[in-house]
Design a protein that fits this description.
- By secondary structure, the chain is mainly α.
- The chain is built from 22 helices and two strands.
- The protein has helices at about 5-20, 25-30, 35-40, 50-60, 70-80, 85-100, 105-115, 115-125, 130-145, 150-160, 165-170, 175-190, 195-200, 205-225, 240-255, 255-265, 270-275, 280-295, 300-305, 310-315, 320-335, 340-360; strands spanning about 235, 235-240.
- Strand 1 (about 235) and strand 2 form a beta hairpin.
- Helix 1 (about 5-20) runs parallel beside helix 4 and helix 6 packs parallel to helix 9.
- The radius of gyration is 24 Å and the shape is elongated.
């Protein structure tokens, strides 16, 4: 592949590599032998069949090459060929970009610099209902809009290239759950940029997320009850993850005062309070987080209290997860602003006791949602036997977490009510995982 120019020989060799690259045991060997670079050399070939085989092979290998250096020419070529009119070419290019931008800050930055945001937005627009294209393209955008130095620029570029209406539209039918789940993560990332909060609201993202949350939670309730505690999955997507994703996106959207008013008007506070009882720490955390944002407004704090949130929030003060307990503490503080001093004194004592106990004994890292937050599960797809995208670590990488409200603001013997943190939970070193890639 590196040496010869005879098209028939190259085509035959690429066919062999395409078949071999399906096997997970072969992938590392092919990658280490320079297979990615060899395939890249022929992406500009005049032979359509050679280019096609090379693309399928690269797609198969790409999940084994996420840590590989020296793929800059490939990334640039992939961005260019997203403009191809060949559906198969675009499908492969989207899938490869999704995997190569997974957990790789260097590749994320380069893809942005090569015009990847504009190309991917255009690809989604042109793809229509072809989810074999839109799903990996959305996953790639999700990677590019999170956890690298140019992420805010990428979030801004999606809006600049008129991507916000397009992204919100993907939350609606006929999109299936795998695409919807990926899009929820992208919406969450876009909301991290303050300039995107109003456009997301104006394009109807909040009501649609509310609809999806209700649908997913109903499915969880129905299926778990019928299965005696089993997991609820539709189209291979766990509905618990959709619930978590919707609440997580609404959590970030609720940073805007107008968005909080919309969320309140949709009657979502009861479901957020209900989700505080979830056995899933991830769900507990995002639910407490969104309530923390909603409690910034007096009306929101009163509605939260009226829904009976005091009891579960007080219970969550003792959570083994610092993020959960800190969000719960902040909500309780904000709910208590108009309460008598004696009530505030008792609450301060309870919070001091709980937070000091946590500070003294620590918490179990295995229970902390951020301990695997630096991994991005790869886009996975079912395709033809010789052209399917394989990945062995998909399940292990499906983790979730959200930016924490630093608990040190609430530590100390003399907790006062003016110590309540008003800043947003930081999205720094300990970032979420699924919204950067997959649930």
């Amino acid at each position: 592949m590196r040496t010869y120019t005879y098209e028939k020989l190259l085509w035959t060799t690429s066919r062999v590599l395409k078949v071999l690259s399906v096997c997970s045991s072969n992938k590392p060997a092919i990658v280490e032998a320079g297979g990615m670079q060899a395939m890249t050399m022929h992406l500009g070939s005049q032979s359509g069949r050679l280019q096609q085989n090379c693309l399928w092979t690269l797609r198969n290998l790409s999940d084994a090459a996420t840590r590989m250096d020296g793929l800059d020419p490939l990334l640039q070529m992939l961005v260019q060929i997203l403009g191809s009119g060949d559906v198969n070419v675009v499908t492969c290019a989207s899938g490869i970009l999704s995997n190569l931008t997974c957990n790789n800050q260097h590749n994320k930055v380069l893809t942005c610099e090569f015009g990847g945001i504009e190309a991917l937005v255009h690809t989604i627009l042109q793809a229509g209902d072809r989810e074999e294209i839109t799903e990996p393209a959305v996953c790639a955008l999700r990677h590019l809009t999170s956890r690298h130095g140019r992420a805010p620029d990428a979030q801004d570029a999606v809006r600049h290239f008129y991507g916000v209406p397009l992204v919100v539209k993907l939350l609606h039918p006929p999109s299936r759950w795998p695409l919807i789940k990926a899009t929820i993560g992208l919406v969450r990332n876009l909301a991290l940029l303050p300039a995107n909060l109003a456009p997301l609201r104006e394009n109807g993202a909040i009501p649609r997320l509310a609809e999806l949350l209700n649908r997913a939670q109903q499915e969880v309730t129905r299926r778990v009850g019928a299965a005696g505690g089993g997991s609820a999955s539709v189209d291979g997507v766990r509905m618990e993850e959709v619930v978590e994703g919707c609440v997580g996106a609404l959590h970030i959207l609720a940073r805007d005062v107008n968005n909080r008013a919309v969320i309140r008007s949709l009657g979502l506070i009861p479901i957020f309070v209900q989700l505080l009882y979830s056995p899933n720490l991830n769900v507990q955390r995002v639910s407490a987080g969104v309530l923390c944002e909603l409690a910034n407004d007096r009306e929101g704090a009163e509605m939260i209290e009226q829904e009976g949130a005091t009891a579960p929030l007080t219970q969550l003060l003792h959570s083994s997860n610092e993020g959960v307990s800190t969000y719960a503490a902040a909500v309780l503080f904000r709910m208590s602003e108009d309460k008598p001093q004696e009530f505030k004194r008792r609450l301060s004592t309870e919070l001091s006791s709980s937070l000091h106990r946590q500070d003294q004994h620590g918490w179990d890292p295995s229970m902390d949602m951020d301990h695997t937050a630096h991994y991005d599960p790869m886009y996975m797809s079912q395709g033809p036997a010789a052209g399917s995208l394989q990945g062995g670590s998909q399940h292990d990488l499906r983790r979730s977490a959200y930016g924490e409200l630093d608990s040190h603001h609430l530590m100390g013997v003399n907790i006062s009510f003016d110590q309540i943190p008003n800043e947003h939970p930081p999205d720094g070193g300990q970032m979420a995982a699924w919204f950067d890639t997959d649930l």
